[in-house]
Please model this.
Amino acid sequence: MIALIQRVSDACVKVDGKVVGQIGPGLLVLVCAMQGDTEKNAQMLADKVRKLRIFRDDAGRMNRSLADSGGAALVVSQFTLAADTSSGNRPGFSAALAPDEGKVLYEAFSAMLSQAGISVENGVFGAEMAVSLTNDGPVTIWLER
Model:
């Protein structure tokens, strides 16, 4: 699985102009399940997202995790993270898991974060979404598991 995480002051996702997920301080997590991924990959990614020390401590250093900070996660499916741009000018997405299987892993990933005590909001899998955020830092990190 691939995730692009952004530390945010706030983030929101809308579908058809209606808010479907919204958080204050925490992480916007754009996630894509790839060919060959299993629930084990989802669990490893959820653990990494939860434990990654990218939030400021009292000294201003990135030394606290999402779990330590009490922040929330806005999890949004984004198959375009699987883009292959190695040839031509039109990206290919064949490395992404098929939508029905991808949805299962996306939902499992979100559930795993929630079960670990993280407040989780979600986008709508497969929908056209408008995502807005205030990037804090900015801190943006690419993860693969």
Observations:
- Helices lie at 39-51, 66-69, 99-115.
- The chain has three helices and eight strands.
- The CA atoms of residues 35 and 95 lie 6 Å apart.
